Every structure is written in C-alpha cells, then in structure tokens.
Amino acid sequence: LVPTAFLLINYVKTESQNN
C-alpha cells in the first residue's frame, strides 16, 4: 500500500469512528 492510500484509509476510519 502506498502512503497516500494508507493516510486515506486512516482518515476514513477516523471519520467513521468519530461519526
């Protein structure tokens, strides 16, 4: 996985948990 994809997944996961 490229760093960009990792950051994107991490962002989405964080948003999902925060929401």
Which percent band covers the strand fraction?
under 5%
Averaged pLDDT: 88
Task: Write down the Rg.
Answer: 8 Å
Poorly predicted tracts of residues: none
SSE ordering: H
> Which class best fits the helix and strand makeup?
mainly alpha
* Percent helix range: over 70%
Number of strands: 0
Cα-to-Cα separation, first versus last residue: 25 Å
Sum up the overall morphology in one term.
rod-shaped
Q: What summary fits the major beta sheet?
A: none
Number of helices: 1
Please summarize what this structure is.
The protein is an all-alpha fold and 19 residues long. The protein has one helix spanning 3-18.
Descriptive labels:
mainly alpha, rod-shaped, transmembrane, photosynthesis
Describe this structure in words.
The protein has one helix at about 5-19. With about 20 residues, the protein is an all-alpha fold. The longest helix is centred in the middle third of the chain and has 16 residues, at about 5-19. The relative contact order is 0.19. The mean pLDDT is about 90.
